[in-house]
Write a structure and sequence with these properties.
- By secondary structure, the protein is mainly alpha-helical.
- The chain has 2 domains: 22-160, no CATH class; 175-261, no CATH class.
- Helices cover 60% and strands 6% of the residues.
- It has a two-stranded antiparallel ribbon. Strands 3-4 form a two-stranded antiparallel sheet.
């Protein structure tokens, strides 16, 4: 019986189906800024409650004994109840994390619950509020996903929820290669060479004319032995034509594979 070994990288999570998913943890700096926002909100709220308590004490509503109880209750509310309740209600978010585009999730990528928020909140008193975030920052420097002690205890990390938009493809088939594309053979093109050609096409508009022409000529010369027939066009048009044909055919092959998979799954129901 053979056993398949799945290699999981540091920024990947392994699902129950043994599929490694690429994840993007929120960086330490961004997470620190979010924590500062949450800290400021907590301290400001504590200050407001303290002023309210002082007014109540001055008005004779709070006695000397109840004033101490009020202070402890205010601290617990601002530094434990409020953060834990916020993260539980919003499934891992706080005002600071909303501002920075982060969300607390389990180590396997799932949503967190009250238990995770409670553990994070308890340890947050020590590593965030009592040390002004210094302990959390120090621990985050030495953890792969910028995790603090609360995350390590609860089995969580901060996931990035804002990802840059995927740029629209600006790669189009030159008109003079429309007929050639129907019969061209580009399947033998090496992957590394195809990657270099794609990088050139993406950056071509920002290159100086001389460098652009030279790089296009070098890539066209390297790709010519793997393309049949070679169209009689300028090097850059040739490079773009090869890339478009390769992209379109790979896309059609993927669509065909998906349809076949769907048909097989439908037949097993």
């Amino acid at each position: 019986m053979s056993v398949a070994v799945v290699a999981v990288k540091q920024d990947e999570i392994l699902t129950g189906e043994a599929v490694a998913l690429d994840v993007q943890p929120l960086g330490l700096i961004m997470r620190s800024v979010g924590a500062v926002i949450d800290m400021v909100i907590g301290y400001v709220l504590l200050l407001l409650l303290s002023l309210l308590g002082a007014w109540l004490a001055g008005a004779g509503i709070l006695t000397e004994g109840s004033w101490g109880i009020y202070q402890i209750a205010a601290i617990v509310f601002c530094f434990v109840v409020l953060p834990v309740g916020m993260e539980t209600a919003t499934r891992g978010r706080s005002l600071g994390k909303l501002a920075m585009g982060g969300r607390i999730v389990r180590a396997d990528g799932g949503a967190t619950g009250f238990r995770h928020a409670f553990l994070r909140g308890l340890l947050g008193i020590l590593e965030i509020y009592m040390t002004f975030g210094g302990l959390a920052f120090l621990v985050g420097v030495f953890t792969p996903r910028a995790q603090r002690l609360g995350d390590l205890a609860a089995g969580t990390y901060c996931e990035r929820t804002r990802t840059p938009a995927v740029p629209e493809s600006t790669l189009f088939l030159p008109p003079m290669l429309a007929e050639w594309a129907n019969t061209a053979d580009v399947g033998r093109l090496p992957v590394r060479l195809a990657r270099r050609m794609s990088q050139f096409a993406a950056a071509a508009d920002g290159l100086a004319p001389g460098a652009r022409h030279r790089l296009a000529g070098e890539l066209a010369t390297e790709a010519a032995p793997f393309v049949s027939p070679v169209p009689p066009v300028d090097p850059e048009s040739f490079v773009r034509g090869v890339l478009v044909v390769r992209r379109d055919r790979e896309f059609r092959a993927l669509e065909l594979q998906n349809r076949r998979t769907a048909t097989l799954l439908a037949g097993t129901d």
